[in-house]
């Protein structure tokens, strides 16, 4: 099958969306599918306001149309709601092509945190983006339920995975700090609620691994915490493994792949009982969910490593890729209309 994946999030960005797409694309190609990735590397870009690490493509529609013409896809998947996503959506609608979308991030909440625009208005805007899709892939059952409450159509649940050959226990030698070591790994941005972790009254050490727009300010505010940057997944697995408890303070993640990666390294998770943690930890005994995050962190220290490893093995990228293929909607070329002469369909 010839598959187009259009995304505004791609390397060198480091985030969950890139991790998911990288893993799925690798498995699709191993299965023999031909994949065209349309990403910001194809276009001139400008930094995203308030988040300069994210590049926004400038006027990508014409080039995307040419790429689609040359590739002649059997199916199109639009992974993000940025300029590339909107342009690909517009082209598909003009051509009467079916397509699927994904709801990787709670962008309404993220935009609200940065702009204070009303959440109902923002959800309406993003609902409009996804409405024409044959299916919108939601990364967890709890996110599916949220989208249904916000009147999204054609939503399906699409799980995520972890590569247990990369993320696996590697011992505790990476960090020589007072224990227990409570750790967070991921993007350092306002929506991740890092003060919810760093303000906790906990014995031992607090470790933060990652980059992002909030990093410098967090380092100034929390001089007693230890901040690191990992060089590749191998070192990232060493940091995960060196922790005693992985603390996930986010209230707005759709899934939280880093929790799976921590579990695969044998480290239990402490988090709030909200979407994301509810799906990763759920009713398992691989972590502790509690509205009192400090209490959850202390109790998680007693979780057996084997419970963490067993839970991580339940999530495979092979299964995730199989679901992705099942959800794709093939393009019916007999319904295609010429793009020229038609008004932009929104």
Set out the fold topology:
Layout lengths: L1 E5 L9 H15 L3 E5 L6 E4 L2 E7 L3 H11 L3 E4 L4 H13 L4 E3 L4 H9 L3 H12 L4 E4 L2 H9 L5 E3 L23 E5 L9 H4 L6 E5 L5 H7 L4 E3 L3 H11 L2 E4 L8 H8 L4 E3 L5 H4 L6 E3 L3 H8 L4 H8 L4 H11 L19
Parallel strand pairs: 1-2, 1-5, 5-6, 6-7, 7-8, 9-10, 9-12, 10-11, 12-13, 13-14
Antiparallel strand pairs: 3-4
Characterize the structure shown.
It contains 14 helices and 14 strands. The protein is α/β, with parallel strands linked by helices and 346 residues long. It has two domains: 2-161 and 320-335, Glycogen Phosphorylase B (Rossmann fold); 181-315, Glycogen Phosphorylase B (Rossmann fold), CATH 3.40.50. Helix 6 links the parallel strand 7 (135-138) and strand 8 (155-157). Helix 1 (16-30) crosses helix 14 (317-327), helix 4 packs antiparallel against helix 5 and helix 10 crosses helix 13. The two termini are 28 Å apart.
The total of helices stands at: 14
Radius of gyration: 21 Å
What is the distance, rounded to the nearest whole angstrom, between the alpha carbons of the first and last residues?
28 Å
Query: Within the largest sheet, what's the order of strands?
Result: 2-1-5-6-7-8
Helix/strand-derived category reads alpha/beta
> How many individual domains?
2
CATH class category name of the largest domain:
Alpha Beta
Shape: globular
Please indicate the percent range of residues in DSSP E strands (runs of 2 or more): 15-25%
Number of strands: 14
Question: Can you identify the CATH superfamily of the largest domain?
Answer: Glycogen Phosphorylase B
**Average of pLDDT:** 93
């Amino acid at each position: 099958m010839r598959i187009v994946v259009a995304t505004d999030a791609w390397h060198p960005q480091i985030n969950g969306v890139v991790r998911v797409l990288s893993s799925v694309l690798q498995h699709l190609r191993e299965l023999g599918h031909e994949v065209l990735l349309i990403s910001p590397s194809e276009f001139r870009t400008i930094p995203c306001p308030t988040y300069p690490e994210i590049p926004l493509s400038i006027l990508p529609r014409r080039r995307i149309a040419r790429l689609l013409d040359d590739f002649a896809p059997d199916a199109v998947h639009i992974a993000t709601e940025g300029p590339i996503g909107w342009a690909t959506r517009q082209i598909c609608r003009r051509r009467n092509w079916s397509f699927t979308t994904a709801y990787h991030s709670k962008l309404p909440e993220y935009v609200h945190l940065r702009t204070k625009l009303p959440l109902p208005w923002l959800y309406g805007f993003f609902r409009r983006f996804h409405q024409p899709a044959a299916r919108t892939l939601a990364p967890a059952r709890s996110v599916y339920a949220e989208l249904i409450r916000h009147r999204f159509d054609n939503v399906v649940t699409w799980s995520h995975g972890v590569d247990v050959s990369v993320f696996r226990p590697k011992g505790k030698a990476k960090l020589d700090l007072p224990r227990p070591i409570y750790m967070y790994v991921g993007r350092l941005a306002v929506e991740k609620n890092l003060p919810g972790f760093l303000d906790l009254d906990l014995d031992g050490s607090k470790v933060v691994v990652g980059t992002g727009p909030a990093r410098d300010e967090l380092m100034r505010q929390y001089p007693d915490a230890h901040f690191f940057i990992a060089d590749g997944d191998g070192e990232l697995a060493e940091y995960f493994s060196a922790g005693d408890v992985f603390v996930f303070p986010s209230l707005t993640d759709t899934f939280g792949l880093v929790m799976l990666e921590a579990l695969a390294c044998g480290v239990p998770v402490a988090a709030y009982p909200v979407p994301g943690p509810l799906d990763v930890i759920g009713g398992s005994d691989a972590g502790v969910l509690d509205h009192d995050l400090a209490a959850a962190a202390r109790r998680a220290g007693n979780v057996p490593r084997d419970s963490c490893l067993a839970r991580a093995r339940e999530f495979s990228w092979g299964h995730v890729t199989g679901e992705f293929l099942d959800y794709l909607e093939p393009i019916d070329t007999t319904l295609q209309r010429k793009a020229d002469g038609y008004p932009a369909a929104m």
